[in-house]
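Below is a typical protein record.
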Amino acid sequence: RKNLSPDDAPVGTITEVFKELSADKNRSLSLGISFPGFIDSEKKKVIRSVWFSQIRGRDLAFEISESCEFRNPIIVERNAICDITYDYVFKRFRNDALLISLVSGVSAALLVDETILHGKTGNIGELGHLPTAGNYIPCKCVIIGCLETLVGGAAWGNRWAWETKKRPESFAQSINSSKPARQIIENSLALLFSAL
C-alpha cells in the first residue's frame, strides 16, 4: 500500500479496495461511487462535495480506471442519482419517478421519459441546500439555514441529541420505541413536503 497524501486519500482508498475486488480476472466488475455533492455529469468531474473537499474538480472515474488499468464502466454520481440509476436498471422504476434520499441530508433524483435528469449545473435535486425560513443553523456547505440542517439522518441525530442529551447515534435505535424520535421525523417530513 502506498502512502497517500490527504488530498489523494479518497481516491487512493477506493482504488486500493477496487484493485482487491478486481484481482479475480474471471469476475466482470463495474464500479459505482456515490457521495453527497455536485457532479458535472458531462465533464465527469466533481463540482463540490461537502464531505470530501479534496476531490473537487477531479475526474474520479478516469483516475481510478487509470490506476487500476480497469476498462469496465465506472460511474461517479451523487447519492440519489446512483440510487435511481440502480432502481431504473433493475426495473424497479418503469415510468417517471422521483426518488428522495434522506440518508445524510436531502437529495432527490428525477427520472422522466426514461432519462435521469441532471440539470445544466448538475444541481437538479439538491433539495438539502434550499434555504428554510427561520432556520439559523449553519450547514456544512457554509450557508446558514439549509433544509438539510433540519431534515435527514444527520439532522435527526443532531436534533435527538439536543432534545434528549443522548448521543446522536442512539436516534436510530429509538425510532420504533420513542414518541419524541418519531415526532422529530414527522416534523421534519412536514417541513420537507412544504418545501417541495
About this structure: The longest helix spans residues 179-195. The beta strands are 31-35, 38-40, 45-48, 74-78, 97-101, 107-112, 115-117.
